[in-house]
Design a protein that fits this description.
Elements: E1 7-10, H1 15-32, E2 37-41, H2 53-62, E3 66-68, H3 80-85, E4 104-108, E5 114-121, H4 132-143, E6 150-155, H5 159-168
Parallel strand pairs: 1-2, 2-3, 5-6
Antiparallel strand pairs: 4-5
Bound molecules: fe (ii) ion.
């Protein structure tokens, strides 16, 4: 049986205008599109770079079920504790070992389905990180043991790297 779920992914909410737009538009979209689960990339929601706890709360209040990130996720130190404590707040899995937070989670979507989200970070034109291909595939295989509904946020600069990763995991993730 094929399971389906309606997912809304909102990319790169940028600074105060982005947060305000999300607060204004997201609740209506969640209703009109009958969204079961909403992922928001929020790594630049605080003044265009990084996150702070208050802004994380605003994104959740606006309707995000999970917040993903990228190279700027941990830019501001006062959010580091929250990355350790809040399972709905993800940063790239392939950040160096010992980095606060986590790179994946399994959540309850509104339709009574379980959904997994994985956040990765590319290496082309970005600061050094661990291998997103090797770590990403291992994480996908593990998460698929929990639910077939898996969404990957691959945060990268180079289109070629994104396409290569998509081909590498083709058929293993839903999007
Ligand atoms: Fe970024």
């Amino acid at each position: 049986m094929t399971e389906s779920v309606r997912v809304l992914f909102v990319g790169d909410v940028f600074g105060k205008p982005g947060v305000e737009a999300l607060e204004r538009l997201l609740p209506g979209l969640l209703r009109s599109e009958r969204v079961d689960f909403c992922i928001v990339n929020g790594e630049n929601a605080e003044q265009g770079k990084g996150l702070v706890p208050g802004v994380v709360e605003e994104l959740f209040q606006a309707g995000a079920d999970c917040i993903t990130g990228g190279n700027h996720s941990l830019y501001r130190e006062k959010v580091h504790d929250l990355f350790d404590r809040e399972p709905r707040l993800l940063r790239p899995l392939n950040f160096p070992e010992g980095t606060p937070g986590r790179g994946s989670g399994v959540y309850d979507a509104r339709a009574g389905k379980r959904i997994a989200v994985l956040n990765l970070h590319g290496r082309a034109l970005l600061p050094p990180s661990d291998d997103p291909f090797r770590l990403g595939k291992a994480a996908i295989e593990k998460l698929r043991g929990e639910t077939p509904l898996l969404i990957v946020d691959f945060h990268a600069e180079a289109t070629a790297e994104k396409i290569a990763f998509a081909r590498y995991v083709d058929g293993l993730a839903r999007a």
